[in-house]
Design brief:
This protein is mostly helical. Helices cover 95% and strands 0% of the residues. It is built from 2 helices and no strands. The chain is rod-shaped and about 130 Å long.
């Protein structure tokens, strides 16, 4: 009978040890899953930031392209104005400003 108790105790210890190993294994798996989830979240944030940066870069390139085309068109218009002997609005404003300065200078020198 004592031999049976010893054997039953051994089986109970083995079963308890087996349960401890199972529990440790599940905890290890859960810890690994949590770490993997954290890494996935970090990666997701980085990918979102990268996508946003790419979108902004494309918008800026598009805006720069539009500005370049506008400047090019303005250059053509200014060229056509000069060929036709016409003045652009900017040139007329500059001329008016210069004339006003000359009038002011003449007033000051006549005094």
């Amino acid at each position: 009978m004592a031999d049976l108790n010893w054997f039953d105790e051994l089986k109970a210890k083995a079963a308890a040890n087996n349960e401890k190993q199972k529990k440790a294994m599940f905890e290890s798996i859960n810890h690994h899953d949590e770490e993997q989830q954290k890494q996935n979240e970090k990666l997701s944030k980085l990918l979102n930031k990268n996508a946003e940066a790419s979108r902004i870069r494309k918008e800026n390139e598009k805006r720069e392209s539009i500005e370049y085309e506008r400047q090019k068109a303005m250059g053509k218009v200014e060229h056509e104005f000069s060929v036709l002997g016409l003045k652009t609005e900017k040139e007329m404003k500059q001329e008016a400003s210069l004339k006003a300065m000359l009038r002011e200078l003449n007033k000051n020198t006549q005094k």
